[in-house]
Automatic annotation (TrEMBL):
GO terms for molecular function: peroxidase activity. This is Glutathione peroxidase. Belongs to the glutathione peroxidase family. The keyword Oxidoreductase applies. Residues 25-183 form the Thioredoxin domain.
Length: 185
């Protein structure tokens, strides 16, 4: 009897876990491109990422996961020369970002030496989500549930994988998906 209860519980738990995994839609064609306002007043255009994998991470300066900025910068430094794009998307959707872009840029530069591309402060969920995040949700069912969620786009611009806050940018889970997508030279 105990074994059947345990088995039923494990099957239910397994189903719950499966249901929470984001679904990645089969690409129905070329992925759209998006523009983002850069934190420094520039424009970041995802069309420039085509042919390269891109890791897009929603960030926040006052979050317990903020030290991942150091990992993001290290990943950028080690893999950008190989073709990886790493982009930080500051967001206050979880009430943990500084008041304005200038303060965010200053904090990230001084505390973590960030030189990777950063957008202005954007919404990543809900009705005001940036069109990129609305597209990601439509395509995969994934929307950031907290700060430092990661979205990997393939060289074709389509979603390859997503990860939550606990997965560090330089982790084996991410690198095992990124490295096969890097251009071969």
């Amino acid at each position: 009897m105990k074994r059947r209860v345990f088995t039923a519980l494990m099957m239910a738990l397994g189903s719950a876990i499966t249901l929470r995994r984001p679904r990645i839609a089969e690409a129905a064609g070329p992925a759209p491109t998006f523009t983002f306002p850069g934190i420094d007043g520039s424009t970041i255009d995802s069309a420039e990422w085509r042919g390269k994998p891109a890791l897009v991470v929603n960030t926040a300066s006052l979050c317990g996961f903020t030290p991942q900025l150091e990992d993001m910068q290290a990943l950028y430094e080690s893999h950008a020369p190989k073709g990886l794009v790493v982009v930080a998307v500051p967001s206050d959707d979880f009430a943990q970002e500084l008041d304005d872009a200038k303060k965010v840029k200053e904090f990230c530069t001084l505390q973590y030496g960030i030189t990777l591309p950063m957008t202005d402060i954007l919404h990543v969920k809900g009705k005001d989500a940036h069109p990129f995040y609305a597209w990601v949700k439509e395509q995969s069912g994934f929307q950031p549930g907290w700060n430092f969620n990661k979205i990997l786009l393939g060289p074709d611009g389509n979603i390859v994988a997503t990860w939550g806050s606990m997965t560090k940018p330089g982790s084996d889970a991410i690198l095992s998906k990124v490295e096969p997508l890097l251009p071969r030279s």
